[in-house]
Amino acid sequence: MLALSGVSKSFDLKEGRYCAVDKVSLEVRAGAIHGIIGASGAGKSTLLRLINLLERPDAGTVTLDGRLLTEMPEKLLRRERQKIGMIFQQFNLVGNATVSRNVAIPLELAGAPRSGRMERVRECLHFVGLESKADQYPAQLSGGQRQRVAIARALANSPKLLLCDEPTSALDPGTTADILDVLQHINDMLRVTVVIVTHELDVVRKICTDVSVMEGGRIVDSFSRGDGGFLAPKGHSGSYRERITGKAGEAHV
Ligand SMILES: Nc1ncnc2c1ncn2[C@@H]1O[C@H](COP(=O)(O)OP(=O)(O)OP(=O)(O)O)[C@@H](O)[C@H]1O
User: If you measure from the C-alpha of residue 77 to the centroid of ligand 1, how many angstroms do you get, rounded to a whole number?
Assistant: First the structure.
């Protein structure tokens, strides 16, 4: 459903040009929960932002459901982007807007008819179990509740793809488990394909069906749950593949 082909992105730094994502090709299956894991600075977040063209690639193509996003005029791209939701580590909610208004904003931006908006907001808040918080402000909520609001907001326009940038890195283990359950539920019930950037092995073990490992701007390994499950022995060291699957394996891309 999503294909990146030869995608690259460099940034101009004081010391010169820095290649954050280097000729990455990646296929994400419809219905997958696809993890992108790697050390800090590997290029994971940049890669995620290249998928919805928040960051424009210097080279390469991004195709969503057979439509070439990288070739689309800006107006069409804005419409196509509505099929892609995104959530962030720091939630990125609007602080001076209520929970329901936060969820309503993408509907307003998409030009959804006013009459149906509040019903859709209620549906999305119900889905994440936060209907009772509709009139509160983000500052009155816990981290986990804020991330649920961000998820409800990302679901408002019924996306087919949900991009998650370190969605649990600011949360404690219990809340992390709750948020991963919500993401799993979105994948199961709404058939939304999920791409999740993380540096947490447990996130990958718990919900990902497919994994790409990033290092130095490149994808250096990729594997699937079907290759033998994700049950790593405690304290295991080695490559990401070994630490996630418990098995060594030839890196293959
Ligand atoms: N807008 C930017 N301008 C300059 N350099 C950038 C920009 N965005 C990212 N970089 C650089 O690109 C590299 C990759 O960053 P990125 O955030 O994609 O990595 P990451 O794997 O997500 O790391 P982390 O897990 O720490 O978030 C880093 O060295 C970063 O400093």
Answer: 24
